[in-house]
Amino acid sequence: MRLPYPDDTFDSMFWFLMLQWTADPSRAIAEAVRVVRPGGLLFGCQPLRPLVSNYMNLVVRSSRNSYGFFWPQDYVHWFVQAGADIDLGPIGIFLARKRAAG
């Protein structure tokens, strides 16, 4: 998966309820970070486990195009690995900033 934009294109990026539909969430986050300029913001909301009930996780995972929900530490790891610092709220609202190059 590669977004059709050059590196450091956007000042900010927003998403809402996206990663559970992505086969490789760490790659999706890395792509989002790639196209945001250094110092740029990424913000949005992703439901977190264990707040998402087991039933809801099962329902979403039963869709052939869904991969379920993830744990808070997964999101933090993926953003840090991609080069962004993240503030992840307790219900999944997040604000991340791409670190400056260098």
Kindly summarize this structure in a few lines.
With 102 residues, the chain is of the alpha+beta class.
The structural class is alpha+beta
CATH homology superfamily name? Vaccinia Virus protein VP39
> What percentage of the residues does DSSP assign to strands (E)?
25-35%
State the end-to-end CA separation. 25 Å
Description:
This protein has 102 residues and is α+β, with helices and mostly antiparallel strands. It has one domain (10-97): Rossmann fold (3-Layer(aba) Sandwich), CATH 3.40.50. The protein is built from 3 helices and 4 strands. It has helices at 25-35, 54-61, 72-82; strands spanning 10-16, 36-45, 84-88, 93-98. It has a 4-stranded mixed sheet. Helix 1 links the parallel strand 1 (10-16) and strand 2 (36-45).
